[in-house]
């Protein structure tokens, strides 16, 4: 497939939103959750080639090495600079202890072959013991009682060490965000959560035609009939509730 299509927006490529610390975040990014080995490297290379500048990763996805190979391949071409990209990764639940935060980000940076990322997120507000499985099945025995406020102190240290430009959260509820904002030094720039109108999105795909379709949206307009249809689809259902951990003291939903 040709990689010559031009898109509108930042540098002719993508629209952005300004975060509360002044940095610009492209509103459409490539999601990498469940992207398999042997596929995600090429997906990242293709996406960047057609204009994506935002790539969303996570330690939990177990594919940061391949994502990093794809990013490096594009940077090595010399057409793009590192500052042209917006790279995100996330801290998994087993590493909420403050002392674990910086080392886990350094590990992700090594996998991604980067000196810094643009946004580092706490993946979920509740933690597991570091010795537990990544998705434990033995209930409270595997839970960590580390307060996400302590975790946030480690996140702030990542900013101070210039390992990330911005920090944020994912899957937090309103009360948790309010509590965090009242007790932090550096405010979160985003809460990455399920789809709402008017926010940045990170559709996942490793299929070239879909990667292209997901990005070719900046001239799209929805009329009142489209909106009415979308409203009729509402089922008040969460796609990823993590309900197995609903008894955790920091469970958000």
Automatic annotation (TrEMBL):
Residues annotated as site: Lowers pKa of active site Tyr: 90
Domain of life: Eukaryota
Gene3D superfamilies associated with the record: NADP-dependent oxidoreductase domain
InterPro entries linked: AKR, Aldo/ket_reductase_CS, NAD(P)_OxRdtase_dom_sf, NADP_OxRdtase_dom
Active site (catalytic residues): 61 (proton donor)
One MF term in the entry's GO annotations: oxidoreductase activity
Ranges for domain NADP-dependent oxidoreductase: 30-197
Annotated residues for binding of substrate: 123
Name assigned to this protein: NADP-dependent oxidoreductase domain-containing protein
Organism whose genome encodes this protein: Rhamnusium bicolor
């Amino acid at each position: 497939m040709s990689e010559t299509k031009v898109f509108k927006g930042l540098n002719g490529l993508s629209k952005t939103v300004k975060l509360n610390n002044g940095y610009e975040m492209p509103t459409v990014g490539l999601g990498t959750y469940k992207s398999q080995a042997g596929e995600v490297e090429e997906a990242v290379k293709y996406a960047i080639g057609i204009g994506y500048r935002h790539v969303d990763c996570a330690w939990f996805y177990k594919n940061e090495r391949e994502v990093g190979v794809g990013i490096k391949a594009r940077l090595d071409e010399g057409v793009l600079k590192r500052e042209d990209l917006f790279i995100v990764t996330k801290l998994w639940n087993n590493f909420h202890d403050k002392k674990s935060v910086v080392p886990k980000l350094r590990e992700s940076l090594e996998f991604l072959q980067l000196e810094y990322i643009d946004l580092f997120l706490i993946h979920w507000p509740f933690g597991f013991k570091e010795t537990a499985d990544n998705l434990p099945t033995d209930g409270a025995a595997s839970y960590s009682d580390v307060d996400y406020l302590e975790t946030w102190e480690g996140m702030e240290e990542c900013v101070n060490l210039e390992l990330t430009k911005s920090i944020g959260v994912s899957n937090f509820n309103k009360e948790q965000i309010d509590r965090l904002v009242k007790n932090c030094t550096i405010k979160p720039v985003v809460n990455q959560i399920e789809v709402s109108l008017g926010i940045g999105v990170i559709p996942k795909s490793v299929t070239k035609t879909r990667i292209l379709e997901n990005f070719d949206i900046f001239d799209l307009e929805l009329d009142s009939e489209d909106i009415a249809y979308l409203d009729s689809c509402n089922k008040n259902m969460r796609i990823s509730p993590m309900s197995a951990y609903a008894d955790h003291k920091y469970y958000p939903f």
